[in-house]
Amino acid sequence: MGFLSVIAAAIAGFGFGAVWYMTLSKPWLAAAGIKCDENGKPIGNGSPLPFVLSFIAMILVSGMMRHTFALSGINTFGKGMVSGLGIGLFFISPWIMINNAYGMRPFKLTVIDSGYAIFGCAIIGAVLTVL
Q1: d(Cα 50, Cα 27) in Å, to the nearest integer?
Q2: Domain extents for the chain?
Q3: Is the model's pTM score more than 0.70?
Q4: How far apart are CA 43 and CA 129, in angstroms?
């Protein structure tokens, strides 16, 4: 059952990311410095690789969160959601900030990407504790 909860949580986190970045696509593209064509679409080869890597990352995050939750006795929806928020806010977001600061990226990019980390981890935590 643990494997299925990890996959479900990864799908939920990935799905939330799709909604998050579709909603914030224009400010994210501008903050990330990605060039767009005259139709507002990113210029490039449109490789599926970033999506594949993102889903693999969601499986890894969900799996480690499940392991941590099991060891810590986090087994309710509320505890899972709050713990996920904490992981996103206090583990992942600072790392994003460090990477973006050294890369001289706009702080707006840190805010957008950290928002996904915070709320995505909250969703993953909630899903892990209900399945």
Answers
A1: 19
A2: 2-36+51-130
A3: yes
A4: 40
